Amino acid sequence: MAHCGLQQAELLLLLQILLAITACSLLPSYTGAYTSNHTAGVPPVPCLPDQAAALLRLKRSFTVTNYSAIAFRSWRAGTDCCRWMGVRCGYNGGLVTFLDLGGRGLKSGGLEPALFDLTSLRYLNLASNDFNGSQLPSTGFERLTELTHLNLSTSSFSGQVPNGIGHLTNLVSLDLSTNFEFTETIRYVPNIRVHSISSVSGPICGSLLSLRSLSVIDLQYNMLSGPIPDFFSNLSDLSVLILSYNKFQGWIPPAIFQHKKLVTIDLYLNHGISGYLPNFTNSTTSLEILNVGRTNFSGTIPTSIGNLTSLKRLGLGATSFSGELPSSIGTLKSLSELEISGLGIVGFIPSWVANLTSLTILEFSDCGLSGPVPSFVSNLTKLQKLALCDCSFSGEIPSYISNLVQLQTVLLYSNNFIGKMEFTFFRKLTHLSILDLSNNDLVVVDGANDNPLASSPKLNFLRLSHCNISTYPNFLRNQDQITWLDLSYNQIHGAIPKWAWDNFPNFPSVINLTNNKLTSVGYAPFLPVHSWKLDLSYNMLEGFIPIPLGPALLLDYSNNKFSSLPSNFSTHLHEVGVFKASSNKLSGKIPLSFCDVINIQMLDLSYNNFSGSIPSCLMENVNGIESLKLKENKLTGQFPDNIKERCSFEALDFSGNWIGGQLPRSLVNCKNLEVLDIGNNQISDYFPCWMNTLVRLQVLILKSNKFFGQVVPSTSDEKDHCKFPTLRVLDLASNNFSGTLTKAWFTKLKSMIVKSENVPPVTEYLGIYKITTLITYKGFDVTISNTLWSLVYIDISSNAFCGSIPESIGVLAMLNMVNMSRNSLTGPIPSQLGRLSQIEALDLSFNELSGTIPQELASLDFLSTLNLSYNKLEGRIPESPHFMTFSHRSFLGNNGLCGPPLSKECIDTASPTVVSHHSVKKSVDIMSFLFTGSGFGAGFAIAVVMSWRMPTRK
Fold first, then answer.
1. CA gyration radius, the chain
2. What is the distance in angstroms between the CA of the first residue and the CA of the last residue of the chain?
3. What is the pLDDT of residues 790-814, one digit of tens each?
4. Helix, strand or coil for residue 875?
5. CA distances from 933 to 349, 393, 547 (A)
6. Shortest CA distance to 702 belongs to which of 733, 664, 723?
7. pTM
8. How many CB atoms lie within 10 A of CB 658?
C-alpha cells in the first residue's frame, strides 16, 4: 500500500540498511504453486553427471561464507544431486527440474553460465542473494524453455532485462522485484547516495509479448523505464501485475483496468505515468488490489468504482485527482486499506468513511481536504494505520484516537492541528510503533505521569519536528527501541542528557536534532551509538565534534561552534559516506585522517579557519570522494597536481581561500567533474581551454583571481580545442582577461542554446551535492546554493575585454543572466539580445557602448533587472509597460539618452515607439522562483545580503 511522502531514493537506502541488519530469508513466493503439481518423493533415476557438474560449477561461483557453507553442505561430488538441498529432479531421467537457492544470503560477482545447462528447469529461485550489481546475462535464459516460475527478486542485479527471458513461453510467474519489509518507515530515510543497491533497468523488452501464459508479473523496486506495454492487457491469464517503484512513463491504456482476470494492479510510485480511471462495469469484479498512488493519474474518481465489490486495497494517491470523492466507495465493505490524494479534492472527510468498518489503513495525504477530524473515525476500531498527512486538517487532535487501541502507525504531520499535546495521550496505544506529529501548530510536552507502572508504547519511529518543544523530552527515558528520532526545528536548549544516548539500541539509528538551541551533547568526544544518520547541524554546540562509536553513513555537524576533531576520529568513520562540518570554528591544518575514510563520498569543511595547504592525499583522490568543499577557509599554497586517473570528483569548491599558483593539469583525469568553483583565490593562469576534455563540466567559476590573457585563442587550431558544450554557468568576473569576444566561441556553448536533456549534475543527486556561490544578481550580492544547475548565466564583468558584443550571443536562448559590466566593450548593443526570451538580468554598465538602445529589449517579458549605465548610448529610451518599471539608475551616465525614466526630455517631436508585449504575462523574477521549489530535488535556497550596489564611476 502507499505511504505518506514515500520517495524512491529513500527506499533504496533503507533496503541497504535492512539488508545490513539482517539477511532476509524470504520463502519462495510460488513454491506452493509449483509443488502442488508434482508428486513428492525421490525420483527413481539418480541425477545425471552433467547436471551435477553444472550445479557444482554454480556452487563454486559463490563466495564461501559460513552461511553459504550450510546451504551447500549436501552438495558433494559423487552423490545424487537430486537429493541435494534445494534441488529436485523430475521423472524424466535424472534431470534437474527444481532449484531453490532463495534467501540463502549467497554472494557472487555474477550469474554462473553453467546454470543454463540445466535446460529442464521448471522452477528457479535465486531471490534474496547478492550478485553485487552485476548484469543479468544477455544470453542463456532462452535455453530454459521449460521454465514456469522465475524469481530473481532482491538479488542486486542491474542492467536491462535480457531478451532471452522473453522466449520463455511457459512462464507463469516472473518476479524481478526488490522486496523488503518495514516499508512503513522507508519514507524517512536520509538522502544518501548509495552505490551498492542495484536493480534491473531500461524498458520492458518487446519479446515478453510471447509470454502468453504469464499469470503473475512482479517487477517492483527496479529502475525500469519507458512505456508500460499495451500487450499486458492482452495476456489472458494475467492475474497479478505489480510494477510499483519504477520509472515508467507515458499513458496507461484503460483496458488494463478492465481485464477480467486481474486480481492485483499496482502501479505505485511511477511519477511519469499518466492516465485516468475508466468506467468499471459489473463484470469487472475480480480486482482485490488497485493502486495508482504517486503517479500522474488525473481526472475524477468514477462513481462506478463501487462496482469493484471484491476490493480489499484501494490506493488513489495521485495528487492530480480532482472533484468530489464518490460516495460509492463507502459501499466497498471488504475494503481494508484506503489511500486517497488529490489537491483538487476539497471539502471534509466524507461521512461514508464511517461505513468502512473493516479498514485497517486509512490515509488522506497531499490533498485539499480540511476541517476537524470527524468523530465517526472512532468507529473504525480495526485501524492499524491512520495517516492524515499534508492536507489542511485543523482543530485539536481528537481524544478518541487514543481509544483506537489497534493503531500501530499515526501520521498527522503537515496540517493545521493546534493545542497542547501531552505524550501520555498515546499511553493506551500499546501497539504504536510509528508516530509523526510534525509541522503543525502543536505544543508537545511530556505530560503528567501519574502512574509510572502504566504500560506505554515502545516506538521505533518518532518524528516531532516543528512541535514547539523547549526541553529534551523526558518521556524518551522509557523509549529504548527507537531507531528513528527527529526532534528538529524546535527550541530545545541546554545539554542533551546522557541517558538519551544510552537509550538508543545497539543497531543503527537515524537521529535528527538540527535547528535547535543545544549547547552540549553530554558525551565527548565519542558517542555510544550506531547511527546511519546523525544530524546536529544548526545548534550552538562547542568543543570536540562528537563521533559515533558505531558505523555511520551521514554525519552533519554544520553551523555550530565546534573547534576540534578527536585525534583518532577516522578509525570510527569507515562507513561514512557524507561528512559535513561547515560553518564551525575548526582551525589548524586539515587532518590527513580524512584520507583514511575509505567510503566517503562528500566532505564539506567550508566556512572554518583551516590553514596551510590542501592535503595532497585528498586531491590524489584514492578514496572515491565525489564532492569536496573547502570554501571560505584560510588555505594557502598551490593545488596539488597529483590527481590519479579514474578520478571520482564530481564537484569541487575551493572558493574563498588564498590559494595561488596554477590550476592542476591533472584535473583532466576527473572525467565526471561537473562543478568547479575556485573563485576568490590568488590563482594566476591562462583560461583553461585544456578542460574541454571534461565533457560533463557544467559549472565553471573562476571569478576574483589573477587569470590573464585571452579567453578565445588566437589560432584556429586552439579555437577548435576550446569548446565547452555542456557549460551552463560561466563566471570569469574580476580577473585580468583581455581580448575580444568572438562569434564562434558563443555558438559552442551548446547547453546555453537549447535545454539539455542530460541528467542534472551532482547538485541534484538526492539532495546531497550542493554548491554555493556568490554572484552579483540584480544589484544584490546573492548566495545561491543547492540546484544551481537550474540557473544559466555568463558573468565576464570587471575584466579588460574589448571590441564589440558578438551578435551570436542571441543564440544562447537559455540564459537567465548576462553580466558584461566594467570592461572596454565598444559598438552598439546587438538587437539579437532581444532573442534571449528567458533572460531576467542584463548588466552592460561601465563600458564604451554607443548607439541607441535596441527596441527589441523592451519585448523581453522576464527582464526585471537592467543596467546600461555609464556608456555612450544616445537617443530615446524605449517605452513599454515593462521598461517603465526600471529605475533611472539603469540609464545614468549616458549623456545622449533621453525620455522616461530620465528627467531629460527628448527634443525631437516624433512620437515615441511604444512596444507592446506579445503577452500579458507578469515578469517573473527568478529570485521568487528560487524560493518556490518544485518537488523532488528541485528549487533553490538563497540568502540575500541586502546591500544595493549603487553604480559609481570608474
1. 32
2. 66
3. 789 999 999 999 999 999 999 999 9
4. strand
5. 29, 23, 33
6. 733
7. 0.77
8. 13
